[in-house]
């Protein structure tokens, strides 16, 4: 009978230790994510490429490290942006830039592997991506 009690205590102790280890791993991952968010000044410092639209530069499944551009975006920069009403961000290269009189940037983007620009991906009637739609600029 004593052997059964010590076995159940051992099982409980192992379960408690595994639960604590799992909680430490999850909290460490969250701290690293939030730390990267602060350092890069980006809500999403790491993103995954979901399509082949940027091949050969990036393949599906590649991880991209982002920073929020403090300087204006330039033609040729690869940016991650969100289209209003759509949940999945897009990773494409800036093809054209239009700057308004109040220094607001509007960008036209295109995937390297796509035959046409992204106007078909934007909302109906939208011709440009605004600076505030940019989630980050690809750094590596």
Automatic annotation (TrEMBL):
Keywords: Endoplasmic reticulum, Hydrolase, Membrane, Protease, Signal-anchor, Transmembrane, Transmembrane helix. CDD domains: S26_SPase_I (cd06530). It is a single-pass type II membrane protein. Pfam families: Peptidase_S24 (PF00717). Its EC number is 3.4.21.89. Transmembrane segments: none annotated. It is an enzyme of class 3 (hydrolase). Residues 38-96 form the Peptidase S24/S26A/S26B/S26C domain. Catalytic component of the signal peptidase complex (SPC) which catalyzes the cleavage of N-terminal signal sequences from nascent proteins as they are translocated into the lumen of the endoplasmic reticulum. Specifically cleaves N-terminal signal peptides that contain a hydrophobic alpha-helix (h-region) shorter than 18-20 amino acids. This is Signal peptidase complex catalytic subunit SEC11.
